[in-house]
Amino acid sequence: MPMSQGAYQAGISAAVGTLCALFARKVIGEGQHVDVSEVEAWTNLNTGAHLLTYIYRGVTGTRRGRHGSFFYYPHSILPCKNGQVFLIAPQIEQWTRFVDLMGTPEWSMNPRYRNRRAMGGEYPDEVDNLIIPWLKEHTKEELFSLCRKNRIPLAPLLTVDELIKDPHLKAREFFIELDHQETGMLKYPGAPFKLSKTPWAIEHSAPLLGEHNEEIYCKKLGYTGQELVKLKEAGVI
User: Alpha carbon 161 to chain centroid distance?
Assistant: First the structure.
């Protein structure tokens, strides 16, 4: 995302984690290490963010197919040998390194394929079809490794099963399991930050609609059982 949003959002998580550590110091008498992952902060904050825009404002998204809204090519989801990858190269140097990685094919010398704005806005599918044969010679793991070494922004697209089994996320204990009363065991994203002395934990699954009405209205706010029934009948709760 532009403007290093992931870094800022990770910074917010780190700030909150630091505050928690400061409050905990008053209880346990010592400081602790705050561990924040930018990828995890980004994932927790942005996965499904557009769903909230629709729920609260009624604003729907726009389907763009496999190409994003970025002005310059590439900004594409493309097939490879064993799945798909996402390739973006906002800087001309990144695109040049990618072309070099492919072996500088003859077509890349054509002026038509040197105008990245036209490629992105007018005929991205045409350029995709020139790149895809090379991509299909490699797995997404191979492409990810090659592009990391050559400083090219490319990421493998993981299936749900691949994501759940990802060794890095397992090592980070990113997913945790909770027993939900209606659906059974479910996996949830883990902590937004990790504290070395006072580890964070989810104590219960997401509540059902109205599950805690009696506890809140009657035991904490002093309503009677009859008043609670009237609130339900009136559609207040």
Answer: 16
**Residue ranges of the alpha helices (H) in 63-199?**
92-101, 116-121, 124-135, 140-149, 160-165, 167-172
According to the model, what pLDDT value does residue 3 have? 66
Q: Read off the tokens for 102.
A: 């492919």
Domains in the chain, CATH or no CATH each: 2-61+162-195 (no CATH), 75-157 (3.30.1540.10), 208-237 (no CATH)
Cβ atoms 90, 70 nearer than 8 A: yes
Angle at 210 between CA 183 and CA 48, to 5 degrees: 60
Dihedral sign from CA coordinates of 52, 55, 57, 63 = positive
Residues 157-212: tens digit of each pLDDT: 999 899 888 888 888 888 888 888 888 888 888 788 899 999 887 777 878 888 89
Three-state DSSP state, 34 = strand
